[in-house]
Amino acid sequence: MSATTLGHKGLEAVKNKDYEAALPLLDKALASSNSPAWLLARSQTHQQLKNYDAALRDAELAYHTAAERSSGTSRKFMIDAQHRRSVILHRLGRYADADCCAKWSMLLAEGRPAREDDGVEKQVDSNGNYTVTVEDAIADNAGQPNYNPMSGLGPGGDSATSKPERTGFESEWTRAYTWRSQVLSMLKSLPEDHAGRKVTVTKIPTKPEPQKLEPKVEEEIIDTSDKNDAEKASAPAPGSVPDDQLKLRADFYQTNQNVTISLFAKDAKRENVQVQFFNNYVQISSIPRSAAPYVQPGDREAASTFTLGGEIVPSGSRFTVTPRKIELVLQKATPGVKWSTWGTEEIGISAPKAGVSASPVAASSVVAAPEKQATPAITSAPVASTPKPTGAPAYPTSSRSGAKDWDKLGDDEDDTNKEDINGFFKTLYKGATPDQQRAMMKSFIESNGTALSTDWTDVANRTVETVPPEGVVPKKWKE
């Protein structure tokens, strides 16, 4: 199979979020060619598999490969590489570094020179802490590419309010712009002496050496009757996989009353998963581990203790299990209090820590039925009802699905995907001034979701045009 075929198959696997299948395909393709597209896809794959060092290395190599090729797509790949660096650094808790890379992604999308000394990484105080805030990021739209290709002038033809012409990377600019609010919100919650406040990255990363993969010896064909014995003999011993690689990828969102945590566990089965809710932590057993498929229900690796970011009401909490994730819906003990983080995972069932309350509730009394399945009869104590969250204002939208509640936008898979951007819109919208909020709603609605502006003076007196991604032609409903 040619490298091109392998690369296309790897990209398709990443698109379908089948990262375990994507990795060997991309490894083989990249053994022949350092394609920036394949490197970025493998970077995303490593990130999803929590191989963060490898993910960062591929993103940085993709940046250099794209810059050296100087083709028509080079800038696009460089923009994506800086954004991918930002996402991975965020995962590593290096929030100041993550914001710098997001800003560099914006500057490239604005058409600025790649080697320009913009001083982004120099915005630190006397202690070396990064000084950029969420408010600074919201106001940082002066270089936003112009969505009106007919004129570079602002409302009324005032050249003082002119914005840069279109660059073709408007969607990439918006992606980085919205992402920064999430990064800086996390930075704001850190202690003053936290390492995540320090800037350690450079705009142009050190070029990594191309990875050399050891050639694999062709496997001996094993008779089908001996297959199970052979798999058992080749399986790694329990405890040989580092705990950090075993931990589940988690996303969360919250309302005034509840915190919903999605723990991504492929092939999770409702009949196997056991959950116990405590005041400050949750214990889950029989978790399938993609990083260690040999794990059995009784092994230490099959269980985890999740220390929560706040206190909950165990009797008002519940969970669901689907083939891709375990979802916890936790009722806050103190409604209205915002959690800065969902918590942390520790492999195995650990004893309660000092200061952590242990008031368990049997899983059978709080389990919600699996999604898209018939609800079985429950013979134990009834499910405690969860108070409905106070309704947040719904704003007008051009979407056929109806009005949007910007405080309840969802979450799901990757940081760069739609669900995470929706979460960032929530932070962005809440922190904006009334004029900025009006500008965001007007530009988003009138452009059919393809443009976002926080500059009311720019959009107040004009209709914001629909600007689809490059290569896409907009059509009216009746066409």
UniProtKB/TrEMBL annotation:
Residues 150-169, 225-244, 378-418 are annotated as: Disordered. Residues 245-343 form the CS domain. Residues 394-479 form the SGS domain. It comes from the Eukaryota. One of its GO terms (molecular function) is protein-folding chaperone binding. InterPro entries: CS_dom (IPR007052), HSP20-like_chaperone (IPR008978), SGS_dom (IPR007699), Sgt1-like (IPR044563), TPR-like_helical_dom_sf (IPR011990). Coiled coil: none annotated. Pfam families: CS, SGS. Belongs to the SGT1 family. This is SGS domain-containing protein.
